[in-house]
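Exercise 7. Predict the structure of ATP-dependent 6-phosphofructokinase from Sphingobacterium arenae.
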Amino acid sequence: MKAIKNIAVLTSGGDAPGMNAGIRAVVRTGIYNDLNVFGIRRGYDGLVKGEIVPMDAKSVANIIQRGGTMLKTARSEEFKTYEGRKQAYENIQKLGIDALIVIGGDGTFTGASKFIEEFDIPIIGMPGTIDNDLAGTDFTIGYDTAINTVVDAVDKIRDTAESHDRVFVIEVMGRDSGLIALRSGISTGAEAVLIPELNVDYDAIMKRLDKSRKNKSSRIIIVAEGDKEGGEVVADKIKENFPHYDVRLSILGHIQRGGRPSCMDRVLASRLGVASVEGLLQGRRGEMAGLICGQVQFTPFNKAIKHIDKINENLTRIVEILSL
Ligand code: F6P
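Solution. The predicted structure, encoded as tokens:
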């Protein structure tokens, strides 16, 4: 196995709070181990276009507390083509880069797997997405900050909902995943949570709303963006079934992706950044570093991208029991 001397890090897909802490950890752990570290700007797009810059300890100073990603990110169409990946390979060859650390979600790891298959590049992944939709880690970098942003917003909406005796349908992010909806639903006392992973029985939800305590001042229904109907349709259905309810829809949108990372996300990103570089040096490839029950564990990319087991149906039951 070729010794690793030069590594590069990139962030890809949707940004997530804590990515900066992850970049900082990779750069400094690399330097600590006498490696040369490069930063790739704009994810795989920058890899294809050769936007690769040397990093030093100072270049990642004062970023641990910042949201977003200082390396910028993108969803690259070019990298999905063989020609794009070949160009990317030539760019890293030119600089003598031996290995990559990629921070992102399922799209990032799918791209990384293809790249390894075709060009035999050592790659380790770090889970960076607000959606938490990756297996092999209890939480992804950015999820904790995002759910706290959602909780803060829903608490505020609850105030106005109570004052006006209104029903609010609140759509939260999660293109393929209900994990933001589920956890924020429990912690805000939502009356119902709709997520894409579970088949929604709308009749049951309508019955529940109907049966719920008549003296409730407000009702909150949290809908994951990836739910097959989406917030708008759910709000319309509630209006149709309960014309006497005053229903409003609120789509929280990209506010959920920004902001200062929480302590949890900073520590998670720092731990996984160190583990990723150390894993590469120990000969690991094609795996994602994650944290399971407080311990670092590595999971092959093809297993990490399947998150369905993370849906704990007991949590949906808790929403129902506690919404009396
Ligand atoms: O990063 C994940 C995510 O926030 C999803 O929850 C959401 O569906 C998607 O990104 C939105 O992506 P974009 O910002 O490209 O519209």
